[in-house]
Structures are given as C-alpha cells and as structure tokens.
Amino acid sequence: MAAMTLYQKLVRTHEVARLDDQHVLLYVDLHIMNEYTSPQAFAGLDERALPVRRPGQQMAVVDHVIPTHPVPPAARVIADPASALQARNLKRNCIAHDIALFDTTDPGQGIEHVVAPERGMILPGMTVLCGDSHTTTYGALGALGFGIGTSEVEHVLATQTLVYRLARTMRVRIDGVLPPGTTAKDLVIHVVHRLGAQGARGYAVEFCGAAVAALSAEGRMTLCNMAVEAGARAALIAPDAVTLAYVRDHAGHLSAREWEGVLQDSRGLHSDPGAGFDAEHVLDASAIAPYVTWGTSPDQALPVTGSVPDPDGADDGLARMALRKAIDYMGLAPGVALDGLPVDRVFIGSCTNGRIEDLRAVAGLARGRRVAHGVRAMVVPGSGAVRRQAEAEGIARQLIDAGFEWRQPGCSMCLAMNDDALAPGERCASTTNRNFEGRQGRGGRTHLMSPLMAAAAALTGRITDVRTFGREGHE
After folding, report:
1. How many Cβ atoms are within 10 Å of 461's Cβ, its own excluded?
2. Burial class of residue 310 in the structure, from the number of CB atoms within 10 Å of its CB (0-12 exposed, 13-18 middle, 19+ buried)
3. b/e per residue, 389-410, with b = 16+ CB within 10 A?
4. Structural domains for the chain
5. Which end of the chain is more exposed for a tag (fewer CB within 10 A), N or C?
6. What is d(CA 126, CA 113) in angstroms, rounded to the nearest whole number?
7. What pTM was estimated for this model as a whole?
8. 351 labelled ligand-binding
9. Phi (first) and psi of residue 161, to 5 degrees
10. Residue 208 marked as a ligand binder
C-alpha cells in the first residue's frame, strides 16, 4: 500500500462511498451546533418531515449571542429579542430531537470549541464538523475537524454523512524552540503572516516539528484554531503522549476497553515515511518574536518591534490599495511603531485563547499590578468549567484585584453578536482570531496578540513588548 498522510488516513477510515475523483461521502463521528448556524437546518428537516439520524452524535451550545455579564449562571438572560429567539429555537429543536444542549443557564455552557475537548468528546481519529470555521481546533487532538455551511448542517443531521470535496495536503514543519515571551499564539500569527491569508487555501495542513511537539495540548488548539486564517480547510497534529494525556484527563467516561481502543487507533495516526504532500514549508520557531496585527486581516501582522508598513513598498496596485485601506481603517500611518501604541480596551478570551492555560499566564503577569487608568480590560473564560477552575486556583481573584472584569463564558467580544462590543474608534488589544473591519464592533480597531501581550497592554495602557515588561518605563 502506498504511503499515506495523516489527513488521507482520516478520510479513508471515514469514507462511506467514493463519489468521484474529488468527492467522497464522509461519515461524521460528532456534529456540533450553535444557536447561530443551526436554525435553518432544523427548519429544513421539519419541512421534509425528516428525523435527526443519530441524535447521540450531536451536541449543541449557546455561545455566540449570549451576554457575559458577571451574574450567576442561573440568572443569565439574553435580553436582545432576536438573539433570545435564536437560543429558544435551538433549545426547542434539541428537545424535539433529543440532542444534548449546553443552554444559557447550564453550568457547563461555554464556547463550543472549548466545551467539546474539555468534556472528552474529541478523540484522536474522529471526524468532527460544526457550522463554525474554527472547527479546525480539533486537529490538535488528531481529529479531522472543519466548518460547514447551513445546508451541510442539515445534511449531517439527516444522514450523519457529508458530501465532501477532498483537500490538497500541506506540511508545515516548525523546528527550533520558542524564545521566552513567545507563545503558541505568536507562533500561529507568524505562520499566517508567512503563508498569507490565502496561502493554505484548499489545503489540509499538518503541523509537525520540535516546536509543535513542545506545545501543550491547549497550545496546539490555538495553533490549529487559527490555521483557518491562512485559508486552511483543516489543521492536524499527529497524536502523541501529550495528546493522549490530555484525552485521558478529560475523557473519564471511557471504559478501560474503550481507552485501549483509543490507544490502539492512535498508533497509526501519523503520516507514513515517504508520504507525499502537495506543498511543504519549514519555519524556525527560535526566530519568532511576540507578534501583533496592525491591519484588518490576521496576516497583516509584524513582531511587536515592527512598524506599520508603507503601502508604496507593495509590489502591485491592488496590494497598495489594500494596505492603504487597512491603515486608514485602523487610524494609523506608515512608520508608526506598534510598541507603545495606546489602547482603550483589552479582551482576553475566545475559542483561541479562553482556556485555563491562557488565564494562568495573564494572572501571573497581573499579580500585584493594576490595569492602567482609562483602560477597560475584560477576561471571559471559555467555559463554565474553565471559570470554576480559575476561581478554585485563585486566578479570578488575582484578575479582579488587578482591575480586570471577570465575566461569564461565551464568544463575547470575539465578534459583535452580543453586547460585548467596541465603540467606533476604540482600539483593542485582543486574544481573538480575527481583526476584520467591524468584527468586534462597528468602527472598532482590533490588534490580535497573545494573552501575555494582551495582559501587558492592559497593565501599561499601550501595546507593550512583554519581553521588556517590568523594566523602567513599562509599568
């Protein structure tokens, strides 16, 4: 048998039928839904009088539209009428079809891509689909995860399969060691910057190398989560001891026999020696500095020591136009240094950086310090479980004492679909995954960065190189 990539193995083991050279009917192990992308799919089922084929392989969460005010979970209310209707419809549909739901007041509620791994729902070798582009997150655990559209959600609900167009394969090897002050978030912003916003379009990307192996499971989730910002259709990391330790800690529901099956399956989940990739890239982690986006696309990023580029240096007219548009929207000018740029808001959370590891890093930097005067800094844990763990570890108290707002879980200010939003012209240091125009609020200006960098910005009132934080003039 010819050598195969990890991606090809995952597709092969889930192929129900080969439709043509480019398409297969793919079996879906787990389908995840939210209140935003599922209503039309359920309506389609109702119109055709179709049941959900396998309710036990569905899971739903209210996360996009829910406010994150710091009230007890039982008191959480969605006041916006349209958003409340979406949540009610999801609950009604889940009850009607016997689908597990983490509803508005459920203590387990959180962001779908945080809740699923922490509850042991993601196992190596699975296929996991969701009506959300950041479903690539699950590749961190050796699962094939990707986002789908509303019509595809309906198809999965009705058949537990998907008509799937095969992706090309790309391997990104990242060697070296991340320097102090840099994290998985800096690594993935660097990758997106190097590849470009469309550099991985149409590809399933496999990450490997010493720097990837050194990441925690949570750090790998950050890496795979944002691979879609380079256009990737999927992101994968071959499971190893780190993966299996994470899964073992979170999948306590597995019997001894089921766990042995996971171990057995994982042994073959890697790209074979000699497997061919359609594209390959090699990067050096030791040369990476803390990164910050300056523009309105995640690839418009530079080390924090850099300056806003000059559009006149672009290769062609379209590129110059795009650079000027981004610079104008961000209220910047060519040559402006990123380090020292004042911020109005700081947001720490999202499916990219709302896990306990991220909050520990923020609390460690904030301990004994205060949020800068005039800055509003919010910390939104990725799930109820993360929130409770942070409170048990004393992280929440450290953040509150430092002047951070300690919120309830949800997508929050990652996108302006709830009441956590930027005002026009406000500049935000954000741990989210997208910095598009209006993404965090109409006219809002977003600079993506790591939790450590965002914490430093909150404490200084400006974008700050965390490697120099604590020195004279930086506190």
Report:
1. 18
2. middle
3. bbeeeebbebbeebbbbbbbbb
4. 6-280 (3.30.499.10), 291-466 (3.30.499.10)
5. N
6. 15
7. 0.97
8. yes
9. -135, 170
10. no
